[in-house]
Amino acid sequence: MGFKEINRQILRKIALILGIVFLSVLAFFLILHYINIKKGLLNLNISKGYISLKKVDYKFFKSGALTYEIFSKSLNYSSPKKNIIKLNGVKAYIYGKNKKPAYVIIGKYGRLNVVSKNVTISGGVIIKDIINGSYMKAKLIYYFAKDDKIVAPGYMKIKSKNYYISGSGLVFYIKKRIFILNKDVHFMSYRRIK
Q1: Which residues contact 91 (CB under 8 A, 6 or more apart)?
Q2: Which H/E stretch holds residue 72?
Q3: Which of 44, 76, 137, 194 would you label with 181, given CA atoms 20 to 30 Å apart?
Q4: Please, which pLDDT band fits residue 171 given cuts at 50, 70 and 90?
């Protein structure tokens, strides 16, 4: 037996050992992955017609620009026929012309239509104007992505450092920064007239 033959046998044994180690590690991670999916530890559960996901970041672009971004603690997508994603613990950012967040919307629950990209947010809804610091409070709002507007059919409060407004039937045009309250409007100014 020559020196070259001994080196070949050693190389074969090393290659065999490395192959066994690689397959063992691969098998270990496949088993771990299978266990995690069964227990939902990967924060993703998939079954027939149902998806559940934790810690969501959803971005919507219109004409190549980021229009809004939604963060949620959890997501449930129950049926492709309904095209609705249910969200819990919602925080949405609406972006302005300068590609920076202009408004942040916070609410307990949300529903995102994956076709129209419209969003419904309910449960202690707060809309904060990041630019001037004012905020709106409502129980329920609808955000229409195509028109870039928010509609709040119920009672709401709008507050800034200079005024307080309450009423119902809000229509808010985001890009124009114009809002309309249709009923039971009450306005109070904090500014002193000189």
Answers
A1: 70, 71, 72, 104, 105, 106
A2: strand 65-77
A3: 194
A4: very high
Per-residue pLDDT of 74-97, as tens digits, reads 767 665 667 788 888 888 888 877
Cα-based torsion angle of the residue sequence 48, 84, 42, 38 in order, rounded to the nearest 10 degrees = -20
CA gap 148, 144 in Å, rounded: 6
The C-alpha angle 82, 144, 74, rounded to 5 degrees, equals 55
- CA 21/CA 172 separation, integer angstroms: 62
Which of 131, 51, 124 shows the shortest CA–CA distance to 94? Answer: 131
Q: How far apart are the first and last CA of the chain?
A: 109
Question: Alpha-carbon distance 126 to 185, whole Å?
Answer: 19
pLDDT for 179 equals 85
Kindly report the average pLDDT of the chain as a whole number.
78
- d(Cα 56, Cα 90) in Å, to the nearest integer? 9
Q: Are 177 and 96 in contact (CB under 8 A)?
A: no
C-alpha span between 122 and 106 (Å, rounded) = 9
- Please name the residues in contact with 135: beta carbons below 8 A apart, sequence gap of 6 or more: 126, 127, 128, 129, 158, 159, 160
Cα separation, 129 vs 125, in Å, equals 13
